[in-house]
Design brief:
single chain, alpha+beta, Serine Threonine Protein Phosphatase 5, Tetratricopeptide repeat, 2 domains, 8-stranded antiparallel β-barrel, two-stranded antiparallel ribbon, 33% helix, disordered N terminus
């Protein structure tokens, strides 16, 4: 790929080189608050190395873990939060500014049990939290106080109305009043007409396989992207070999990443085949060629 790699590298345009450099993490907007090569000591007299690179910030691996586990594993969340109660308020950026808190993760999948546990440990509730809990009066009051807030999207571009639907996913353990409140809230949000998020264009099923595969823009093994189908059968973009966020079609061969307003992913076709993709943000524009 010698000549091809050189040509691909020439397509990378980074406007804030000092801030982003040319690493994949910078390109994707995924940054950690530390330098992995740092060797600061806790106590110079004892010559004891700090326990993890981010110290004294919380270990990013713990933050990542508690947010990830909050989607499905109450026992794992309890184990992490009991050790470090601060993690109840943890927030993680997945990619491209897709921020998600632990309680936000539990909310959009309808895990009321995890939501309630995190709240008991100091998690900070917002309109999405109250929506999944079916707090009709609270949510209605918030919308009345801040008209239009119902259009705000949650983590991964998930709408407020979808959070309301998720509130009934644990219907078997809810009492009659909780079920009635959730249904009442769903009816209210549906009547508003704009709480269901953005309507995107459909990708024909026959075309989806044409997008799938790995796309490279450099010589190194991690300098690329993968397009896969996620659990919802949507196209998703991740780092090479990995799953990532959903791609939502906003135009001819043009997509947005999880609804991020400043991110576009476009695909270039030739002879009815996808040849490359271009990821564009305010900081960078990268074109990667599809591997055959």
């Amino acid at each position: 790929m010698g000549k091809n790699n050189e040509r691909l590298k020439n397509k990378i345009m980074i406007s804030r080189r000092k801030a982003i450099q040319s690493s994949l993490l910078g390109i994707l907007g995924f940054s950690l608050p530390y330098s992995a090569s740092s060797n600061v000591l806790i106590n110079s007299d004892s010559n004891t190395a700090k326990p993890y690179p981010a110290y004294p910030s919380l270990d990013p691996e713990m933050v990542h873990s508690v947010v990830g586990k909050s989607h499905f594993d109450l026992d794992a969340v309890k184990k992490l939060v009991e050790q470090r109660p601060e993690l109840a308020a943890a927030t993680w950026e997945w990619r491209f500014g897709d921020f998600e808190s632990a309680v936000g993760a539990a909310s959009h999948v309808g895990r009321r049990d995890i939501v309630e546990y995190l709240l008991s440990k100091g998690a900070r509730p917002n309109i999405f939290t109250y929506t999944v809990l079916g707090a009709y009066d609270v949510v209605k009051g918030m919308i009345a106080h801040t008209p239009g807030i119902q259009k705000t999207l949650g983590p991964h571009g998930i709408s407020l109305l979808d959070h309301a639907y998720a509130g009934l996913r644990m219907k078997d353990i809810l009492n009659a009043k909780q079920i009635d409140n959730s249904k009442k809230l769903i009816d209210y949000l549906e009547e508003l007409g704009d709480a269901g998020g953005i309507t995107y264009e459909d990708v024909p099923e026959v075309d989806k396989p044409k997008y799938l595969g790995d796309y490279m823009y450099g010589d190194k093994a991690d300098e690329g992207f993968s397009i896969k189908l996620n659990m919802q059968k949507k196209l998703a973009l991740g780092t090479i070999g990995e799953f990532g966020g959903s791609l939502y079609k906003i135009g001819e061969n043009k997509f947005t990443y999880n609804g991020a307003p400043s991110v576009t992913v476009s695909f270039q076709w030739a002879n009815d085949k996808v040849k490359s993709l271009t990821v564009k943000t305010p900081d960078a524009e990268i074109t990667a060629e599809k591997l055959s």
